[in-house]
Sequence to fold (127 residues):
Amino acid sequence: MVAILLGITSACAPDDTAEDPLANRAKYLGVWQVTENTGINYPQFYSVNISAGTQDDEVVIAGLYNESGTNVVALISGNSITIPNQSTGGISFQGSGQANASFSQISLSFTANDGSGPDNIEAVLVP
Fold:
């Protein structure tokens, strides 16, 4: 009976840190160098700071679109990042992206609209 209980207990214990949302979020945190490869201001180079959001699967990207007053909230799941439709710093944002397996690069596609019309951006972020 004890062997059965031990088997059940160990089978229920999480053993894959990739599924731990806090460990996954930690891979995104820090200062990233951005290269915008398309858009109205192409080419554009700047830094963003990605910090923890209020939820385990949430990050905040400060300075996206090279605008110091923006704090874009993004949702993460594994290597995927999603920017839900939102406004910050007078600019509307929406988009998505993908980190590579080693989290040494994030490819991000987003739309920014400051009221003058949508600007479609393809950007690469590296630490």
In short: The radius of gyration is 18 Å. DSSP finds two helices and eight strands in the chain. Helices lie at 2-12, 21-26. The first strand starts at residue 30 and ends at 36.
